Amino acid sequence: NAGVTQTPKFQVLKTGQSMTLQCAQDMNHEYMSWYRQDPGMGLRLIHYSVGAGITDQGEVPNGYNVSRSTTEDFPLRLLSAAPSQTSVYFCASTRTGGGTQYFGPGTRLLVL
Amino acid sequence: GDSVTQMEGPVTLSEEAFLTINCTYTATGYPSLFWYVQYPGEGLQLLLKATKADDKGSNKGFEATYRKETTSFHLEKGSVQVSDSAVYFCALSDPWSGDNYGQNFVFGPGTRLSVLP
């Protein structure tokens, strides 16, 4: 049982490049979410999903896309990276009905 | 909307000192409350939680009591160790907020704790 996994651990992009941050969980959780963590800002919700085929926007969705084709996977896409997207990104999952959120180890992204 | 306020720190203590990190919340209904800990270079881990008023969550010597009358969930530890150095986040999930049945969390800004030997 690996929990929540994220790849890559670290990535450097140039402005305008695109990339996908991968997230997977093996706990059969219906609910998954993406956060970004910036100094002094805590964690801010980007997008979330309550199950395969269903996604919705969080607090800071601009510049990011998500999809949920399976229960296990919830990738986050940056279509055209900007320096303002330099951050640490965390994926999390929760069982249906709420409760403890389980976090991945994070992806540190630097956009030059 | 729901919100969480916590002292931002940084907090610097000597080993074996008493720790309190204050957390207060605003919520529509009856949220569950959580403390998460983030060690350097790692993701967030659940430290403890409480799901209803007067519940006390405890783990690894840390405690927090859900106080509905003061809308607080302060984190305490009687004797901190160097290994407790980390960032601590207070959070809530509120099934009454209309926000996807409480599965969306609201986090405080985090409190950085440094414990010196």
Q: Topology, pairings included?
A:
The complex is a heterodimer of chains A (112) and B (117).
Chain A: E1 4-7, E2 10-13, E3 19-25, E4 31-38, E5 42-51, E6 54-57, E7 64-66, E8 76-78, E9 87-94, E10 102-103, E11 107-111
Parallel strand pairs in A: 2-11
Antiparallel strand pairs in A: 1-3, 3-8, 4-5, 4-9, 5-6, 7-8, 9-10, 9-11
Chain B: E1 3-6, E2 11-14, E3 19-21, E4 23-26, E5 32-38, E6 44-50, E7 56-59, E8 62-65, E9 75-77, E10 86-93, E11 105-107, E12 111-116
In words, what does this structure look like?
- The complex is a heterodimer of chains A (112) and B (117).
- Chain A has 112 residues and is mainly beta.
- Chain A has no helices and eleven strands.
- Chain A has strands at residues 4-7, 10-13, 19-25, 31-38, 42-51, 54-57, 64-66, 76-78, 87-94, 102-103, 107-111.
- Chain A is globular.
- The model of chain A has no long low-confidence stretch (mean pLDDT 92).
- Chain B is an all-beta fold.
- Chain B contains no helices and twelve strands.
- Chain B has strands at 3-6, 11-14, 19-21, 23-26, 32-38, 44-50, 56-59, 62-65, 75-77, 86-93, 105-107, 111-116.
- In chain B, strands 2, 5, 6, 10, 11 and 12 form a six-stranded mixed β-sheet that branches. In chain B, strands 3-9-8-7 form a four-stranded antiparallel β-sheet, with no helix packed on it. In chain B, strands 1-4 form a two-stranded antiparallel ribbon.
- The radius of gyration of chain B is 14 Å and the shape is globular.
- The chains are: A mainly beta (112), B mainly beta (117).
- At the A-B interface, strand 5, strand 9 and strand 10 of A face strand 5 and strand 6 of B.
